[in-house]
Specification:
13 strands, binds beta-D-glucopyranose, 451 residues, single chain
């Protein structure tokens, strides 16, 4: 852990240069992260204790010929979605219907039975609203974006909750079974859970449906994670490891814990409902970046390095990644967008220098997130292909990647810094809605296997 030296109060310059140092990841740091990542991947694949769970997904990527109509569920953030997806068998997927349901806080933190009742009720509403007949069997793909241990494509045992979920009675249970029970209870017995997949697996599957070079799927959103294509013979913990072929592995990289922490990371971690877990996620993802920046700003205010004139305060939960995004997107000469935001939260008459400091703090936090992300991408790609001899399409979904100013560019620039010209082999592409469409593709791949 990095603790700062004693500072003179009221000196924003020295505060910021110390801050920069504690968040800095040099090329050497990145190389160390990559080495540690490989080490943890190897241990995770052979079933040894590791911060990377390396969970086999019991599915390979798509070939593009998969077809059929599927219902898809997406559970993993603050919204729950139900979709109807049509795959035409020529690499094209079409969303026929889509509805979003906000998960009430009481349900996220209540019991598993209530959570799955809520899911079944939402499906019922979806069916009625979209006039979907229940006479015939409906094949359903369930994107369940939490660490789960699978032993086949249609079952999965929740290992632990992440992203603030705490619903009781689900850890250790098969989520497909919980869903099936709730569906029957709500007279939706014709819906059959055909496939269960993590959102990263869905993202890879959806992209590979149209681009056959895709061998990695990533989410940079509320949480973060990646999956990739592994030789079955390398998955030593599988009984079938003597088989030929490939299987997708959900790395659960959000839990990687070999990156040095700053004092802000420690404070943030201790206040979560899963302390000690998801350490990398807590440095990267949308759920946490705002809180890291807020902790820094609060300390600056206390030290009289910022807004010393007034009574500014950023309380827990008030400063979100969306606010950082807004602040970093202000490229106006006088940083007036930032001024307007600050006025809106009751901090008026700010100086240009103060607004600049705010922007710089956000930049320091988001830059580290992007550099860690690039190191993790590099680790997985070089695990698959140590000398970067082949082209790798990487499908990426999530608001942070899509919307956060400069994040994408910083990830790409860091990959270039690490791999020089060979970074051209790493093709970062945006994958829209892998967690919606993707699981339909996964269900269709599974149906092809069964045939
Ligand atoms: C979960 C992963 C998920 C990621 C992105 C993490 O918190 O553990 O399973 O893929 O968030 O949604």
């Amino acid at each position: 852990m990095h603790r700062g030296k004693k500072r003179t109060p009221n000196d924003p310059c020295s505060f910021l240069s110390e801050l920069e140092k504690s968040f800095e990841l040099t090329r050497e740091h990145l190389e160390e992260i990559i080495l540690e990542f490989h080490h943890e991947m190897k241990r995770g694949l052979s079933g040894k204790e590791s911060s990377l769970k390396m969970l086999p997904a019991f599915i390979d990527r798509a070939c593009g010929k998969e077809e059929g109509k599927f219902m898809a569920l997406d559970l993993g953030g603050t919204n729950f979605r139900v979709l109807q997806v049509d795959l035409s068998g020529d690499g094209k997927a079409r969303k026929e219907h889509e509805e979003k349901y906000v998960i009430p806080k009481a349900i996220m933190h209540g019991t598993g039975v209530k959570l799955f009742d809520f899911i079944a009720q939402s499906i019922k509403q979806f069916i009625i609203y979209n006039n979907i007949g229940l006479e015939n069997k409906i094949n359903l793909g369930f994107t369940f974006s939490f660490p789960m241990k699978q032993s086949n494509i249609s079952t999965g045992i929740l290992i632990n909750w992440t992203k603030g979920f705490t619903a009781k009675g689900v850890i250790g249970a098969d989520v497909a079974k919980l869903l099936t029970t709730a569906l029957k209870k709500h007279r939706l017995g014709n819906i059959e859970v055909a496939a269960l997949a993590n959102d990263t697996v869905g993202t890879l599957a959806a992209k590979s449906y149209e681009d056959h070079d895709c061998d990695m799927g990533i989410i940079f959103g509320t949480g973060t994670n990646a999956c990739y294509r592994e030789k079955i013979s390398n998955i030593k913990k599988l009984k079938s490891s003597s088989e030929k072929g490939y299987m997708l592995i959900n790395t659960e990289w959000g839990n990687f814990n070999k990156i040095r922490m700053t004092k802000y990371d420690v404070i943030l971690d201790e206040a979560t409902n899963n302390p000690g877990e998801q350490r990398m996620e807590k440095m990267i993802s949308g759920m946490y970046l705002g809180e890291i920046a807020r902790l820094i700003l609060e300390e600056m205010i206390e030290d009289k390095c910022l807004f010393a004139k007034g009574k500014a305060k950023f309380s827990k939960g008030d400063f979100k990644t969306e606010h950082m995004s807004l602040i970093e997107s202000d490229d106006s000469d006088k940083l007036l967008k930032i001024a307007e935001y600050l006025e809106g939260i009751g901090i008026s008459d700010t100086s240009f220098e103060e607004r600049e400091i705010l922007k710089r703090v956000c930049g320091i936090v988001s830059k580290r997130a992007a550099r860690i992300s690039a190191a993790a991408i590099s680790a997985i790609v070089t695990w698959m292909d140590p000398h970067l001899e082949h082209k790798h399409t990487i499908a990426i979904d999530g608001m942070l990647y899509e919307k956060y100013p400069h994040f994408r560019q910083l990830v790409a620039a860091t990959l270039k810094e690490i791999h020089k010209d060979a970074s051209e082999k790493i093709n970062l592409t945006r994958a829209k809605d892998g967690s919606g469409i993707g699981v339909a593709v996964v269900a269709a791949v599974a149906a092809l296997y069964r045939q």
